[in-house]
Please model this.
Amino acid sequence: MPANILNLPQYRVLRVEETNHDYHVTAEPVDVTSACPHCQSDRLTSWGTREQVFKDLPMHGKRVGIYIDTKRLRCQACDKTFSQVLPLLAENRMMTDRLVKWIGQQSLKRTFTSLADETGVVEGTIRNIFRDYINELEQTVRFETPKWMGIDGIHIINRPRCVVSNIQDNTIVDMLRNRNKDTVAKYLFKMPNRDKVQYVAMDMWTPYRDAVSAVLPDATIVIDKFHVVRMANDAMEKARKGLRGELTLKQKRGLMHDRFVMLKRERDLTDEERLNLDGWRKNYPALGEAYTIKEGFYGVYEGAGTPEDALARYEAWYRSISSEIRPYFADLIRAFQNWQPFILNYFEHPVTNAHTESLNSLIQVMNRLGRGYSFEALRAKVLFTEGIHSHRHKRPRFARKPEPEPVEMGYGLPDDASDFGLPVMEKVRPPEAYDPHKHENREKNYGVHISTLIRLIESGEL
Model:
């Protein structure tokens, strides 16, 4: 076995023992501690030794332990005791620095249990390293504050969570552990350059509205169109179930596949589906009316060009609902009345979470991915895994090239080079030394692209 098996030149390998699952490497530091760290005196005496075991990166599929007889020294000048210097070791973790870094990086891709099995480090320590690594990333990875922000509630790992997105770039910029007002408000308050936010698209969840109103008073709140029109489909489904319950078994058989057709937009029906719908409208007028009312609400969004026009269309739609059908659409009516100013903002500022359908897919794949993970671990995997962020590199303005600076003969050459008639060398400053717009050349991180995230999760790469 080669003496440099560790590939750590700061240590001298004394002995290597190999078992079925592990390497046991006995080593000692090459450099000897020769001065007291407290007073710098070199009058040192031995004060005993103790064997310590430090875990290192696994090799050849086996765990690695480095055994070091750590010396305890006493300074005769200041009478203080201390341990010899052990370079490249994280003594508080009892492992090498490189193993700590590797575990942090791998914890974004793998389960804590698998890392503990591969390295021999207990799972609790793996979790602690993961938390420290994430805290470090939180300080270094910065996502650009979106001008058009989306706030969505999605259900991940058995609880409702809040996802903050960049609508213009279709990216996720953060995931919050819950959707409470305080949680959302604190996040928004800490967001850098929060005054940049112009529009916030959200669903009809009061804590979101209250948090945004308190922290981003100049931002326009827009209720997401898809959340509103989805309530029309929900009302249609309530009507279908309620009216169907009043039918005989024979009549129900005549309504085969009615759910699929009733929830479909009329413009998207096939000829066969349209024929079935016409028959149902004639035989079951209340069911046909519910479908017409549902389609009519979609027409509010599709036909209106201004908030005033949208409100007029809504009021006309409201008056067209019969007393028999109105109870099924009660939730939609109540929501429109309660959130009317924010719903109507859409018709002046048509901002919407265009990734709503993508988020629905994301919920499913994230819940599959989340088995065995905590929310914190899943959030870190989503936000900080390298290679899935959306970047834009702003091109700097043109800058005139610098004038070359003549230097003395022989710059960078042997002292006698001038005797050979070599030309005078010119020293040119590197571009960063004269770029007046260096700060504009920073690569901006706009968050995690949703489609890329879904692809990586589904392929098992994340």
User: Anything to note?
Assistant: Residues 94-140 form one domain. Residues 105 and 133 are 8 Å apart (CA to CA). The two ends are 36 Å apart (CA to CA).
